[in-house]
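Why do we care about 3D structure at all? Because function follows from shape, and shape follows, mostly, from sequence. That is the central idea of this module. The next example makes it concrete: a single protein chain, its amino acid sequence, and then its structure expressed as tokens.
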Amino acid sequence: MYRRVAIVTDSTACLPPALTAELGITVAQIQVRIGDQVDDESRIPVPTMVKAMRGPLSVTTVPPDPGSFYWAYADAGAAGAEAVVSIHVSSRLSGTVDTATNAAKQVRVPVHVVDTGTCGMSLGYAVLAAAEAAARGGDARKVIGAARHSFSRGSELLYVDTLEYLKRGGRISPAVAVLGTALSMKPLLTMTNGQITPLEKVLGTDRALRRIVEVAAKRAGEERVDVAVEHFAAEDRAHDVMRRLRKKIPGGRKFMVTQVSSAIGAHVGPGAIGVTISPV
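And the structure:
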């Protein structure tokens, strides 16, 4: 379907492939390096990722290949798009924005690269808002405005079984990682100024998951919101959290449970749960 503005994002948006295909959203794949092997994260099954993370090989992530952005932008221009809005994971977590910006300089169609300062479904909901604006015939300014309205008001909460993987990937400092080492203290995290930061510590997994529901419900308030629960190799836990959220958030419009991308999983570790509250 022709649209004035084409939408491009990266795979940390955690959007189901069927949904991006339906809405005409192009997704550039973050790459995962296991040992000396590099591949698009979509081609690495979750069990393979979990096994690698628990083994002796190093597991790291790499921004999408520059060529994937170049061809996404060039193809959009060839299809008649007047502009491209390219919406991405926080530049303080990944080099993806820089890669997209460099690729944008190589094509003729105007490309607007947007750093959302977030990741996961906070990014995903912003991409969906942009796609909806584009489907209504909006120009680049309106599409960017829709995305910005979404991610600037969204809220991302994160529970991890251990901070070790975030520390390995440099997403938090070793000093912050100490928060989760004493007794059975489980850290709750959030996004602040494009970075993952501590929110509070809770004793034990069950209490931590109850607390993340409480905080999410408080942040949602009485507003009309979309709610997502993201997980990495923790589907049952994610559905349990979602059941609690449905009861606690009367203003919920859409509820979605999705597995995070393997690139995010490489940093948060197995068992991780994310909760996104996105005001409509």
